[in-house]
Design a protein that fits this description.
With about 300 residues, the chain is α/β, with parallel strands linked by helices. It folds into two domains: about 120 residues, Response regulator (Rossmann fold); about 160 residues, GAF domain (Beta-Lactamase). It starts with 6 loop residues before the first strand and ends in a 6-residue tail after the last helix. The strands form three sheets. The protein has a six-stranded antiparallel β-sheet with strand order 10-9-8-13-12-11.
C-alpha cells in the first residue's frame, strides 16, 4: 500500500456488519468473511493491509486468524473489534500478538475504528521493530542492489574472511536489511543465510550514523527476550553501515563474537573502511548490471 491507494481491509465478523463501516468510506476496500477458514482463503489470494475481527469465531478466535493472516501478509495490521469484554479474552494470546483492542461499545466506535486502521497501516504502528524515517525509499533502493542478480558472492566471501581475520573474531558477515528479514550475502565463521528482521541487531544499527558497538548483547535490554541471538551465542556486536551512492543505508558489515568485546577507535575506523568497500563493490556491480556490462 502507498499513500493515495485504497486500503484492503479484511473484516471477519459473522453477519459482516463491520464491512459496512468501510464500504461507506472512500479509500477503503472491505472484504468480508464469516470465519477463520474463509478469511484465510481470502488472504491466500489477496494482499491484506489490515484485518478487523470479532473475538469469537465459529472455528477459532481472532488470534488464530491474526496469526494465519500474518503468515501470508506479514505487515498486515490486526484490530480486535469486539463485543466481548476484555476480561473474557485470552490475555496470554493477546500479549503474544501485536494487535489493537477496540470495544464496539466505545463512543463513536465506527469512526475511531476507521482512524485506527488508517494509522496502523500508514504509520506502521504494529511493526515489531524500529523503522528508519526513510524506510520506503530504503526498500526501493534495495531493489537495485539485489546481489542475486550480480556475480558478486565470491568477492564478499573473500572480504568477510579478511575482516574476520583482521579483527580476530568468530563471525564476520555482510547483511542487507530487507522489509521483513536480513539476508546475509556473505558470512565467514557461520552458515547463516537469513534472519527475521525483528530478531536482528542490524535493524537497530541501520538507524545510527556511526558504527554501532554493543559490548555485551545479552546485557542490552532491547534483546532480553531474543531467543535467536541467545541460540546463536551472539555476545558482542559491531556493525558499520553499507550505503548507496546517495547515502541510504541498506545493510551492515558486522563483527560477531561469543564473548563481550570492545573496539578501539582505530578498529572502528577500519571497520567503516571495509564497509565502504562493500558499498563501492555493490555500486560498481549495480552500474555494470544497469548498462549491460555484467551478465544478469
Amino acid at each position: 500500500m502507498t499513500n493515495g491507494d485504497d486500503l484492503t481491509v479484511l473484516c471477519v465478523d459473522p453477519g459482516n456488519p463491520t464491512a459496512d463501516i468501510f464500504a461507506e468510506r472512500a479509500h477503503f476496500t472491505p472484504v468480508a468473511a464469516d470465519d477463520v477458514a474463509a478469511a484465510l482463503s481470502v488472504a491466500d489470494d489477496t494482499a491484506i493491509d489490515c484485518v478487523v475481527s470479532e473475538y469469537d469465531l465459529p472455528d477459532g478466535t481472532a488470534f488464530d486468524l491474526f496469526e494465519g493472516v500474518r503468515d501470508r501478509s506479514p505487515n498486515a495490521a490486526c484490530i480486535l473489534y469486539t463485543d466481548v469484554d476484555h476480561s473474557a479474552i485470552d490475555t496470554e494470546q493477546f500479549q503474544d500478538t501485536v494487535a489493537e483492542f477496540m470495544p464496539k461499545s466505545s463512543p463513536d466506535a465506527a469512526n475511531r475504528l476507521v482512524d485506527t486502521v488508517r494509522n496502523a497501516v500508514v504509520n506502521r504502528t504494529q511493526v515489531g521493530f524500529p523503522l528508519p524515517d526513510n524506510e520506503d525509499e530504503r526498500l526501493a533502493a534495495l531493489v537495485d542492489y539485489d546481489v542475486d542478480d550480480f556475480d558478486a558472492v565470491e568477492t564478499f566471501d573473500r572480504l568477510s574472511e579478511l575482516v574476520a581475520s583482521h579483527f580476530d573474531i568468530n563471525v564476520a558477515f555482510v547483511g542487507l536489511v530487507h522489509e521483513f528479514e536480513e539476508r546475509f550475502i556473505a558470512c565467514h565463521g557461520a552458515d547463516w543465510e537469513r534472519m527475521d528482521r525483528e530478531d536482528t541487531i542490524c535493524t537497530y544499527a541501520i538507524l545510527d550514523e556511526d558504527v554501532t558497538v554493543i559490548q555485551d548483547v545479552q546485557a542490552d535490554p532491547r534483546f532480553d527476550h531474543n531467543e535467536t541471538l541467545k541460540q546463536l551465542d551472539i555476545r558482542s556486536y559491531a556493525g558499520a553501515n553499507i550505503t548507496t551512492a546517495d547515502g541510504t543505508v541498506i545493510g551492515e558489515l558486522c563483527l560477531i563474537h561469543d564473548e563481550p568485546r570492545t573496539y578501539t577507535a582505530e578498529e572502528l575506523t577500519d571497520l567503516q573502511l571495509f564497509a565502504d568497500e562493500v558499498s563501492e563493490q555493490l555500486e560498481l556491480r549495480r552500474k555494470l548490471a544497469a548498462t549491460g556490462g555484467e551478465e544478469r
